[in-house]
Amino acid sequence: MKFLVVGLGNIGAEYAETRHNIGFKVLDALAESSNTSFVASRYGAIAELRHRGHTITLLKPSTYMNLSGKAVRYWLDALKIDTSQLLVVVDDIALPFGELRIRTKGSDGGHNGLKNIAELIGTTAYARMRFGIGGDFARGHQVDYVLGEWSAEEREAMPARLKLFGDAVLSFASIGLERTMNFFNGK
Q1: Spatial CB neighbours of 73, under 8 Å, sequence gap ≥ 6
Q2: d(Cα 129, Cα 165) in Å, to the nearest integer?
Q3: What is the distance between the alpha carbons of residues 17 and 148, in angstroms, rounded to a whole number?
Q4: Distances 27 to 68, 122, 135, 168 between C-alpha atoms, Å
Q5: Does position 34 have pLDDT exceeding 90, yes or no?
Q6: What CATH number is given to the structural domain containing 89?
Q7: How many domains does the chain have?
Q8: Which of 59, 71, 95, 152 has a CA 20 to 30 Å removed from the CA of 120?
Q9: Helical (H) or strand (E) element with 4
């Protein structure tokens, strides 16, 4: 069975360590722990790994986050993967730092990357894994916060959180979405 796991982020060195790029960070950590690396390809960088007989393609779109749907649509079609085998990793300001929440479908929650994906694949019925980035910002400063860098405490906790999220991605591909949700949500 084949899976497509998409990490959302913005391209460019100036965004590399920002909260909004956590999707890229999760996929980078998973690729590194799986001894694979990303290669530039159409609409993004991709890496492929095998886990328990399943092929998992990791995608970091080369479009800006708000236009991620184009890359997702292209790779779903190119790899002949159904949306039921799609998982999108994204930041979420409504969750405390590092909290993991997986959903089978739902609204974009104001996240423009998720909104664009739903528009271009024609459904909101795809799995998304949200990485809590917290919401400790003054009213009107959301953009500055999500495009800001991690605090020292967050950076220190990051390796353990990235491992947990990588484990959840592998679980999604090996035991399915429902069981993965039961095991990982809220951790």
Answers
A1: 120, 121
A2: 9
A3: 8
A4: 15, 25, 23, 12
A5: yes
A6: 3.40.50.1470
A7: 1
A8: 95
A9: strand 2-7
Measure the CA angle with vertex 44, ends 97 and 100; round to 5°. Answer: 20
Distance between CA atoms of 137 and 126, rounded to whole angstroms? 30
48 strand-pairing partners? 57
Q: What is the pLDDT of residues 105-161, one digit of tens each?
A: 988 777 888 999 999 999 999 999 999 999 888 888 888 898 999 999 999 999 999
The average pLDDT across 47-59 equals: 96
Interatomic CA distance for residues 139 and 4, integer angstroms: 36
End-to-end CA distance of the chain: 27
Residue with tokens 């999220």: 165
Q: Which domain holds residue 100?
A: 2-184
20, 51, 111, 141: the catalytic one is 20
What is the pLDDT, as a whole number, of residue 169? 97
User: Has 20 been annotated as catalytic?
Assistant: yes
Cα 61 from chain centre? 11
Is 57 a residue whose pLDDT tops 80? yes
Residue 31 contacts by C-beta under 8 Å, 6 or more apart in sequence?
A: 37, 38, 47, 49, 58
